[in-house]
Write a structure and sequence with these properties.
The chain folds into 3 domains: 108 residues, no CATH class; 41 residues; 237 residues, no CATH class. The chain contains 18 helices and 7 strands. The strands form 2 sheets. The protein has a 5-stranded mixed β-sheet with strand order 5-4-3-6-7, sandwiched between helices. It starts with a helix and ends in a 10-residue tail after the last helix. About 2% of the residues have low confidence.
Amino acid sequence: MSNAIDSLQGFNFNVFEKEAIEKLKCGQSLTGKDGVLTPLIKRILEAALEGEMESHLSGCKEQGQTNRRNGKLKKVVKTGTGAFELETPRDREGSFEPEIVKKRQTVLNESLDNKVLSLYALGMSYEAITNHLEEMYGLEISTAKISQITDKLMPVITEWRNRPLEAIYPIVFLDAMHFKIREEGKVVSKAIYSILGVNQQGCKEVLGIYLSEAEGAHFWLSVLNDLRARGIEDILIASIDGLKGFPEAIAQVFPKAEIQLCIVHQIRNSLKYVVSKDQKVFMVDLKQVYQATSRDLAEHHLLALEEKWGKKYATVIKSWQANWESLSVYFKYPDELRRIIYTTNIIEGFHRQIRKYTKNKGAFTSENALMKLIYCACQNVVEKWTAPMHNWALIISQLQIYFDGRLNLELR
């Protein structure tokens, strides 16, 4: 390699510099198919290859071999600045093995895969990535090749989804997103359920991403068992949106966990059964329930709500009464903790961030295509989760009191 570098010492960069400046003045781009940098890279590489060949032939001569040059081999190579035809010298014995551009190597930019994955993670389609690479770098890459590159994510995703987890998570949230997938010539809806945990340091983590084939107690039991198998021994509080079967699954796998049903979801479901002309007044009365300062006061306002609206909206009132034990858990805690667990807004906010990367997708070609993009988007989002939640020092101190003996915090 040192001989290849030495061969560049006589390369006239000043001449190229003048040529490049003139081309840039005329509006020619720096990179891309016809970019100013592309011919420079071609010249440098060919000069370096000539240096390697000289070194190789000198070595052959020292060993008493009669090897000599045998023309040149042409091939199209791709780099981050553009594609071009490269002339590689050959020797008669075929023993020359270039280092700077190896035999059969056609892509010189080792970060090409990373470039494709970065664009894919931004939600760009295969076609859009192909067009972008052609326009910016002069690289002609088929959608099939891009699919092969992104398929490299699957082992990474499998490893990530099976990574070990911490033993204790004070708070866990669960919610779902729905996407369209093409399956056997049809477009079907599939649910992606994500579980977000807050660890003992107050930092958010995506504990798992699960593709649901059939929602229900059996599905949720498998999810919770998976979390336990990956190391979780205890969950203090689980904030969920009332998905069928999930509370029962939590009770079986983590029997000590307290379950808080999302108040916001309960309100949304209630308003579906209240006519529009009554909704404003109904909400004024309902706020007296879930914004009460204590559980006793909340139950007092719930009785008042039943007296006023019970006959007209019996289904709504019965729903609040039936779910009251799980809806009212947050009342036992101080305000700092109440604001975190009474709703699944934290995980819904995470899903809104994911949607920014998937919003341009009509229907995914497969479950793997969906999981690849969800994973990439997820990694982009969690990069920003570097600080603990607001007031976490106070919150974890309160949790230590309410869940005495179940946290293993170490004082430092």
